[in-house]
């Protein structure tokens, strides 16, 4: 089950969110051979045209368990102020060749309006 977290994003600002991933024992999760996907949209039923994908990255040392989610100021400037939903998924191929997808984080994003545009 994914962890739930709420974030605030300033409209028109660059945003980077750093996540420390741990396994069920609390040890740093080894993200070697993992891919990260993260998206946000106005609500769960919004179509794909209303979906904004985060730029994602894994630390240069994937055994650190650190990943980042980023949006540029151009991307956040296009967002209307208000509440959005998001989630973050990890994907990897196991030893039998099956693709495993794990939702690790989900929640709401509050986009605060910008006065200076």
Explain this structure to me?
- It is a single chain.
- With 117 residues, the chain is mostly beta strands.
- The chain has one domain (3-112): Sandwich (Immunoglobulin-like).
- 4% of the residues lie in helices and 51% in strands.
- It contains one helix and eight strands, in the order E-E-E-E-E-E-H-E-E.
- The strands form two sheets. Strands 1-8-7-3-4 form a five-stranded mixed beta sheet, with no helix packed on it. A three-stranded antiparallel beta sheet has the order 2-6-5.
- Strand 7 and strand 8 form a beta hairpin.
- The longest helix has 5 residues, at 73-77.
- It starts with a strand and ends in a 5-residue tail after the last strand.
- The model has no long low-confidence stretch (mean pLDDT 94).
